């Protein structure tokens, strides 16, 4: 996808929870750093020292929001953290997480990713009953529900209220002494559990959106949190409650684009699956060409797979400049058309006079693909065959991915031939739904692929 | 007071409301700038363009929080603003104002100064009913009350709920098309109404804690908002509702210390009253001396009055360095005892061998006075007579002033002689309660002076 | 002067030198902080630990340029420092001091204030001989001269080269083990010597533009550096060399405006002299009026003197807002004419219907005075008598003060009556040259007053 | 090399010159952005509008030093720019480029990369003659020489003085109306010439260290600047002068590590050569293995080549986190040993139980290689064969590369077997000098490879 327009398709937020590990804020910090790719708009950490909660959140990258002093002030052995890729909002600074609240049972801080599909209805109902909402985050809905519940304990309140929420979500909730981890009934979004052995021999736990966080902090991946499961961490033990029961339909787009290739998501290594997608793509869409090149970094693994399957040599024909930040000065009129080159520079010597297969993970609006084809043409490519390692994206996502509306999705509005013409390629092919299934190679392929087939689970 | 320890006695917050003036955010900005002395911790502005609300708030001085671009994005002709001097809190960044909320009637933004004395009870009650509180600010209490009210309009809801609040407060509330301005039943905190004639001949309005804001933006002071009054601004008209009726007891400490000398507060010029206080002090406490010097800047007006009354020459014997900011590096051990000199430098040539009357506005903990006496002694003063232009501060304030607890108020725990000995002066005298009354010279002296006499209105 | 246009008349730079005092960088830092009023554009400190030199300099206030870590890295017991008020230049960031250089005898760092009147000639000569200049600072001239000198020691080189320089200057030069302090032959700019007794009983020394620096760091003022004197500090001793001999003609404008009132300059307390100027002004220019008010802060001492002499009451009729910083957002068209009010707010209740004497220290272009008269008129003043506690400024300064050119000096181009009409006052009077002399009251009045009489010493 | 310790081996600085292109500062900015990999410590641009020079330089990345306003103030159609990777120095902020100077012919600004090997001697000589040096940059040497030259024009002075300089260097010099571009006699460092056709049909020119800059701004690569050539750009024409004549010996390390893979350096595409190096490495050092993985990003191209030649599958077995910045918080003791993981995360699922060939471009101190081997071992690698796509680095570079001293170069002090043991690999092999030559495949292989064979050209 390699989208130059960061706003067009928001990456998933990242969540992390740490329980009973010394200097929990540090562990949360490194975990969020490892998952920076899931959200660069804002970052926050809340900790508890079993007596009270501490919180710091702000706009910016993890490394910008925190410093030694701030982490040091986030006291305690339990922590939760969040990376956010904000959607538009009047005051997006108010939308950083964790969300903190005082309520009748004390204090809570909550982080959350995904999307609660019935949030608006519940919110409207709550507002009708006199509730107030101070941000644009669905997280507030849950806090209201638990605050209004008549159950005696937070555990019971969560058991009662969480099942009322529909959609894709992971919640990590910190009270003064406990931590609660919840994954939605369909397990749309990934959430894994790891452990660390403390120096004193006790066990510490970490829960994170992606296992790459475990690698960085030296934790061992135990298992994923289950669909509909709530884990309750307290000093004595971890308890597992299945509070909702439905079939899991994890989001296949995590494999396509979101997750880091070095993460194990839904029990499988992302890198492997992306390679398989490339291999399937090669089987389905053979074409005579001189080289296979990826759109970096999103298309690299699939391109390696395509090359392996097809025998056509893999080349790094486009180089990515990693110094592009959010403060970059927009090019003036004179060089505006070269905007894509700020990030991606094709190597003319590799491209020239070649028949080229270009691999990207997906096409959203088509504008970036169009620009990529153009810069390759300018380099003298003889033929450009754009191959996408996933099916055409034809439906928006309602489960936490900030996709454009249907009217903006190019494949929802044009045939493949039209898209091909629009982007200017010699040919364009997508992986088939069957091919996608084969790539994952699971006998019991059960994924949410609504963005590709329009069939929403809920 | 000239307190080096900024945390010991928080200045009052500043509020401003602007209605029907082009680029309202600019007017709010300059008004907040004029009232920067009432709070330097955080600043915020919310505007409405009759369609929706915009908000920006952050830590820092007015000139640090805002820039041209930010002001420009705060669209519309209505605005409210706030300067905050934070009290301690886990996450004080969450405590900036305005507070924004979505509720059943739409959107509101609220700014607020003062202190709601029954906030905790109402809050506890609300929490019991399932409400959640996301900050440490009493402002949330009002939002909950209006959200829960069954009245049909915001006007009616405010009429219903505001009278439930006790204490000292000013509220300015912005909805998408209206602005509401409310002053508590005892009119503890100052709040004045001004007007501007727009270019097109229409009237624009501004409400602010101090009239110095009007001077800067070129508005005319019309009158003060009345005790228990609610002003409702909408496109057609301004309506006044008296929603609570009690005798006004404005805070006398505004005259003593808080307000800028060039503001008219409670109908009287602060500078005049401070001079009168100094004159009364001279009548009550004559002493043979060579010169009268103020502790700058807080004691200047009273010292001028003392000099005028006593005939003893006024001298600027202590010079204040105005470059002291919040980022100042703490002195090392070697020069720590000179800490007070970072801000205040006595002029040895003026002080030496003189009998000196030093005028300050009040004594809180006594530590600063002690340091001032010491640096004057070091300059060779023959006698140091510390004279305070208000009575001894013996009781904490519950109406919006973040005073130390009683145990920290030196005059609540020591006799005048003991305080005099502690600070090391040759003599120490305070203005009497009678003298304070005379200074204000009002036939019907009715002020809250609980900090001086312990008699709380409510 | 209270100039809103900071660029119109640059304040003098500040210099400080510290020798044999532990953590010399801290002492330099506090000294520069005390002298911040002499330059706010840039600040720098260089230290030596007897082995090598360290340096940090940057744009901004002292408190912005330095922090604990930076001061800590400026190792050693000797230090020099500088506050700069930059003149216009292509790359003013290159113009911060100290200036550092490697030359044939090793390393030096130099700070310098004032103005070398023959710098251009020497520079042209040096350039003709092949020298290069990397900044706009005259300091480079001296470094070139000492680098080219054939003398064996830096002491001898300074003895040889300094006398070639004309004009007003103070130099403080740090080598790896020594510190050199030089004042020009006419002692135009102030430079005082102080001492501190170290814990181990040894003496430490400090040299600074103003004695207010000594007050802050707890040093004792010993004496001023003499006209044409060079002090050489080394481990064993301080040596004094008179390297140039001429009559001293210190700059009288230090008394009028530059120096802090709490500094002793040229052996006299600035505050005292300013008061005398006000008294002389009252003798020379009596007028019937109700009150005397100063333009704060520059006119306060003179206004006190005027009031004392005339018996007309002193009032703080204009309040200054000290939060004005360099980042202030310019007012929009709507309130542009109120620009002066950002800094100065007149108190209407004091001004209205009064005959007012306004005291300022000087008039440069007349634009600020005009604005002040206007805002006082707007407050309803009956009569406004502008009285200036110095003679008309008719000639530019060539000795370190960045005055406007003659064509911009209003009194150089208009009669007093014309100036009075321009600024809109009822009357305008200046202190006479005779009155200036009397204010300083020195039997042997010998000051450079070229800005007032056009008679340049050199 | 993928060095975690940024200080161990400084990347080369980048230089750019722009002549006769509208908004030259923008072109310089984008060019420096494209060459950010050659220096991240400081950045600067100087421009001329044919009347005078403008300059801005500061610490930080290109995107941090400049913004729209700054670029806008850098007026004119000619510009030079520089990215710097600083060596240690007392005041490295003084060491940013361009260096600006006034001298007898007017104003110049100079940028420079590389290293003048006889700088110290010339500098000592100049100092003996009375010159002063204000920074640690060799650039000052050239300015002194041209300032002292007796030739009438800058062109003639450069012709006279440049040949006195030895070593590796590129200079770009801006005067008010001309630009001069010079490459050393051995053409050690790359420097290419490109052109842009302006809207009005005139030609504009750009000179840059790497051609990737041309790609970004849409310029066409014409040719490289020749060894010993000086190009003089003025309004009428470009003139070429060969001012020194010797055989070119370009730096082979540009191919090994410095240059971006998408740059054409010394007439050849870097990516191609790196692939060839990998292929040669495979021919020289076959080993039985399951996969070939690169150390990203430096080893990717060579690993592709190795895989191609050997037929052993290429895998991205280590993922690089590109969010690592200079402000990263150092890990606490608990996870310190995982430091390398902040940047590099191995994929356990790919590594486990495999025989692995790891490709990196070079080994300097060996510490990073040791850490990489360790994290691969921790993933369960069966065998780890470290293969380096260049010969052992045994000698420091004197031509502009800030290499460690010989005592720090592990291969200068240990045999291959010892190094292999130190880093903990199963085997370690380097490309031979012969293999290096073959990779470049040039019949007339003439490169400086002193770092590999110790034979210095000069």
TrEMBL record, chains A, B, C, D:
It comes from Helicobacter ibis. This is Amidophosphoribosyltransferase. Its cofactor is [4Fe-4S] cluster; Mg(2+). It comes from the Bacteria. CDD domains: GPATase_N, PRTases_typeI. GO terms for molecular function: amidophosphoribosyltransferase activity. [4Fe-4S] cluster binds at residues 251, 397, 448, 451. Pfam families: GATase_7, Pribosyltran. Pathway: Purine metabolism; IMP biosynthesis via de novo pathway; N(1)-(5-phospho-D-ribosyl)glycinamide from 5-phospho-alpha-D-ribose 1-diphosphate: step 1/2. Catalyzes the formation of phosphoribosylamine from phosphoribosylpyrophosphate (PRPP) and glutamine. PANTHER family: AMIDOPHOSPHORIBOSYLTRANSFERASE. Binds 1 [4Fe-4S] cluster per subunit. Binds 1 Mg(2+) ion per subunit. Gene3D superfamilies: 3.40.50.2020, Glutamine Phosphoribosylpyrophosphate, subunit 1, domain 1. Keywords: 4Fe-4S, Glutamine amidotransferase, Glycosyltransferase, Iron, Iron-sulfur, Magnesium, Metal-binding, Purine biosynthesis, Transferase. Residues 13-236 form the Glutamine amidotransferase type-2 domain. The active site is at 13 (nucleophile). In the C-terminal section; belongs to the purine/pyrimidine phosphoribosyltransferase family. Its EC number is 2.4.2.14. Mg(2+) binds at residues 298, 360-361. It catalyses: 5-phospho-beta-D-ribosylamine + L-glutamate + diphosphate = 5-phospho-alpha-D-ribose 1-diphosphate + L-glutamine + H2O.
